[in-house]
Amino acid sequence: MRQSPGVLALLILCFCLPPGSPLASEKGIILTEDTELKVADAFMNEREYYRAITEYKKFLILFPESDRADYALFNIGMAYYHGEEFEASARTLANLREKYPESSHAPEALYFEGLGYRKLKNDSHAKTALKEVADTYPDSEYAPMALVADAMLSLEQDNVNAGRQDMEKLVAAYPDYPVSMKAKETLGLFDQYQDLPIKSEILAGIMSAVVPGSGYIYAEHYGDGITAFLINALAIAGTVTALNQENYAVAAIVGGVGLPFYLGNIYGSANAAKKWNIAVRNDLRNRISVTLDYDF
Q: How far apart are CA 145 and CA 115, in angstroms?
């Protein structure tokens, strides 16, 4: 894999120094904190996350008492996050906060710990971390971002009241923060969320039981409704015709073939209503997300 000129230059500096260099000794090369971090940062900037992790870990081994150890550990967690190793990221960032509770990176670490848990679908841990950011580090730039993230997570769980409370808290506590004006706009959208129209899954199923396909039409799945109506109409007509002709064997065959389509039409209609409800909620959630200019 090609390395960028910057990374190559740093590697040459580290490993090809002349014997008289202040960074070298008779026994071998002596790396300074600055040099090792520059190598690690260069890999990080080039999105070579796993190589960056190796260099940051090397830094912690070589300079365990450094006052920049928290910086290295934080970047290990962030490299895991950007490399989509979310469990390792959350674990590392939690370790940072435990070892260096006064670190300037603690608020950001906790915020990304929450986002990492969200990526892992561990919503309870995600919400705990995000709320802790807002409560423990209210003066950090990540507190308002955590409120936005927690609000969006609440919406995903259909907990509209909790999401709206986060937005109200954001507007009240951070009136000068850029996203606060956007948050004000979302309050009306949150109110709309509570009053969204709903298609009854039970009603859709009953309608299709009475008139096949009508439940689909009710759920605005028009193509599926017409198809279900035609298939079931043909099956019913064929069965009735065979019975009128006292051709019971044919009636049994046609009816047996048509029965799964009839039952599927009922189930499918109820499912179509459910999908309609989900789509309406997702659409409004997306509008809120776009208004806030925020995406997980």
A: 11
Determine, yes or no, domain membership for 175: no
Three-state SS across 155-214? HHCCCHHHHHHHHHHHHHHCCCCHHHHHHHHHHHHHHHHHCCCCCCHHHHHHHHHHCCCH
Query: Looking at residue 205, what is its pLDDT?
Result: 96
- Return d(Cα 177, Cα 292) in angstroms, integer: 12
Q: Does 62 map to a domain?
A: yes
Question: What is the number of structural domains in the chain?
Answer: 2
Q: What is the chain's percent helix, strand, coil content, to nearest 5? A: 75, 0, 25
Exposed, middle or buried by CB within 10 Å (0-12, 13-18, 19+), for 233?
A: middle
* Backbone φ and ψ of 103, nearest 5°: -60, 145
Q: What is the C-alpha to C-alpha distance for residues 134 and 140, in angstroms, rounded to an integer?
A: 8
The tokens describing 166, both together, are 């986060």
Put simply, whether the predicted model's pTM sits higher than 0.85 gets the answer no
Over the stretch 163-177, which tens digit does the pLDDT of each residue have? 999 999 999 999 988
Q: HSE-up of 32 (CA within 13 Å, CB side)?
A: 10
Q: What is the CATH number of the domain that holds 28?
A: 1.25.40.10
Tell me the residue range of the domain where 258 lies: 201-292
Q: Of 66, 82, 104, which marks where a domain is finished?
A: 104
Long-range contacts at 8-16 (CB < 8 A, ≥ 24 apart): 10/35, 10/38, 10/39, 10/42, 11/39, 14/39
Residue 134 within any structural domain of the chain: no
| Tens digit of each residue's pLDDT (9 = 90 or more) over 76-114 | 999 999 999 999 999 999 999 999 999 999 999 999 999
Closest among 146, 133, 144, 138 to 177, alpha carbons compared: 144
- Burial code (b: 16+ CB inside 10 Å, e: under 16) for 1-10 equals eeeeeebeeb
Sign for the CA dihedral angle at 258, 263, 269, 275 comes to negative
Please tell me the least confidently modeled range out of 103-117, 118-132, 236-250. 236-250
